[in-house]
Amino acid sequence: MTGFELPIALFLLVNLLVALFAAARGPTAADRMLVALLFGTTGVGILVLLAHGGGGGPFVDVALVIALLAAITGIAFARRAWHRREHPDA
């Protein structure tokens, strides 16, 4: 542990707060989805930093679950958007 984990995690948390405002203003569903993916990846980064800083294994387990859910959510959104373009009346 180098002592930089907590300040970096706090910086990422501030980044998430800024992204929250961007999600509220997002003009399209795709913009809001990108912000949701940012939440997933940044959340994973925060949890891994906290685990490395002394939190232990449970933070890594939660980070892996969040990463998996973010990936599945992104794929589901892309498939749904692609399906709507092929069938505009759907």
Overall morphology: elongated
Radius of gyration, rounded?
16 Å
Question: Average pLDDT value?
Answer: 83
Tell me how many strands there are.
0
Strand content: under 5%
| Largest sheet report | none
**Order of SSEs:** HHH
Measured distance between first and last alpha carbons = 53 Å
- SS content category: mainly alpha
- Helix count, per DSSP? 3
Helix content range:
over 70%
Organism: Geopseudomonas sagittaria
Subcellular location: Cell membrane
GO molecular function: sodium:proton antiporter activity
Pfam family, one: MrpF_PhaF
Fill in the keyword field for this structure:
90 residues, elongated
Word description of this protein:
With 90 residues, the protein is mainly α. The chain has one domain (5-86). The chain is built from 3 helices and no strands. The longest helix is centred in the C-terminal third of the chain and has 30 residues, at 57-86. The termini are far apart. The model has no long low-confidence stretch (mean pLDDT 83).
